[in-house]
Amino acid sequence: MEESAATLIVYLLLASGALLWLVFIRNKEKIHLPPGPPGWLIIISLLRINFSNHSLQDYAYKLHQKYGSILTIRMGSRPLIMVSSHELAHEALVQKGSIFASRPPPQGLIKLFSTDQTSINGAPYGALWRDLRKNLMTQVLNTSPLKSFREGREWGMEVLMESLIAASKNKELGGVVTVIDHVRDALVCMVSYMCFGLRLEEKSIADIAAFWTELRHSGVGLPLNDLFPLLNVFYRKQGKRMRDLRGRQHELLVPLIERRRRALTEGKEVGRGYVDSLLFLTVEGGRRRLSEEEVVTLCSEFLNAAADTTSSVIQWAMARLVMNEDCQGKLYREIADVMGKRGRAVEEEDLRKMVYLEAVVKETLRLHPPEKIVLSHAVTRACSLGGYDVPAHAWLNFHVWEMGMDPKVWPNPSEFIPERHLNEEIDLTGSKQIKMMPFGVGRRICPGLDLAMLHIPLIVARLVQKFVWECKPGEVVDLTETHEFSIVMKNPLQAIIKERDSQ
Ligand code: HEM
């Protein structure tokens, strides 16, 4: 921890004071909240999480084992309700969708990086959120604009294949590649093309990739104090680092945005990108344009959401394929059946013929959703869930990973068995029934679902079509997780790759 020992003692005393306050000054409201641990236990547990490598997710998992699939954590006056049941998630997010579709007011880091709730993911349910989300869908993510970004995907794929072939031939590396490094660079090309409407120069791509690596390692993905402001005292230094990083993010993106603005006003633009739509978008009933700060926020939300989660899932998928030779062989045979043994590279249109590939991707998302808990939700008014009261100021977390691990729904849940998705069509939108919800469900469902379900299978298919993937001799794949923006492999997958044509 960053604070000196003396300061820590003061903080612990403060925390103890808060503890006494929680234990003795009970909230007098007579509402029927879901069960949960007493306040003193929560404070001790949160301090332990804060000082250790344990995650909030692991803590929540243990609590669900003890208190059931809906429980309350009370810190001060605002209850945090945690839900791990498929049925209750459906009741909240689909059946009562409009009530559970808001976001809590942001604290600390989230506030900083969402420009006070003008990112799509941070905006409360209302006019601004609707305008921003509709713009993203119609201008970028719907079928027709998505097709127009194909050149960007091909560019990313070229970058990926060239860098992997070079690495596989590099004698010093002995054919060993660190998968995530190559995949992330390729995705930065693809999504920056979608954002800025053109192929950025190598330097800009390298700067964007380097900045996001720094941000990922800065701990921004662990905003425990955003959920529990009582912990703010432990995050002061991190807060300063984040403000610096936000400043640098601004310096990185503003020149790219301004260049695009000039090209558009001078009629010199080529292609089209997300940023074009943001520069001319009017929001809140046409009353205002977006500020520069807000455009930076929305571009960085897009770049981050589209590249980070996707590359993390691809790394997990490749790890599972390295561990499961049979699955890798079966997947290769499917690709070869559709494309021919020495046929052309897999294209987007070929994916729909590859059912086993889709099953591999879904099984990876079930076991390794990039977010184990979807972004926090808030209600628009007091209501009920599963027979319990949900007060208007409550926050809710839905535990996606636990839903994917429920043995009543998924026999042998810890095993990687893509075949389980072949017999049954699992609808990832969960509109009729939820079995797994890696993209969330309901009004706040991830708008990038279709894009992710294009990028992930396309990249995995090309990787398996081109190379045989093997574990380093004498090593096993280490599935230990760590939380950056998303849940990633603590020790990034390193695999030996061999070009299939050269075998
Ligand atoms: C494997 C890839 C991805 C996964 C698993 C994923 C998952 C999620 C989840 C769980 C949420 C929160 C849902 C909720 O609050 O209930 C979310 C929200 C969001 N995602 Fe994704 N995502 C992925 C890729 C993408 C991509 C490619 C984009 C591209 C733009 C994207 C953009 C967003 C945005 C803007 C939101 C906020 C939606 C809102 O609050 O209305 N995501 N995503």
Automatic annotation (TrEMBL):
Give any GO molecular function from the UniProt entry: heme binding
Q: Which cofactor does it need?
A: heme
Matches recorded under SUPFAM superfamilies: Cytochrome P450 (SSF48264)
Q: Where does heme bind?
A: 446
Membrane-crossing segments per the record: 6-25
**Stored CDD domains:** CYP77_89 (cd11075)
GO CC: one term? membrane
One Gene Ontology term from the biological process aspect of the record: paclitaxel biosynthetic process
Q: In which pathway does it act?
A: Alkaloid biosynthesis; taxol biosynthesis
What is the membrane topology listed in the Swiss-Prot or TrEMBL record?
Single-pass membrane protein
Q: Which UniProt keywords apply?
A: Heme, Iron, Membrane, Metal-binding, Monooxygenase, Oxidoreductase, Taxol biosynthesis, Transmembrane, Transmembrane helix
Predominant place of localization: membrane
Q: In which domain of life is the source organism classified?
A: Eukaryota
Q: InterPro entries recorded for this chain?
A: Cyt_P450, Cyt_P450_CS, Cyt_P450_E_grp-I, Cyt_P450_sf, Plant_metabolite_P450s
Q: Where does it reside?
A: Membrane
Q: Which family does it belong to?
A: Belongs to the cytochrome P450 family.
- The name under which this protein is listed is CYP77F32
Q: Which organism is it from?
A: Taxus chinensis (Chinese yew)
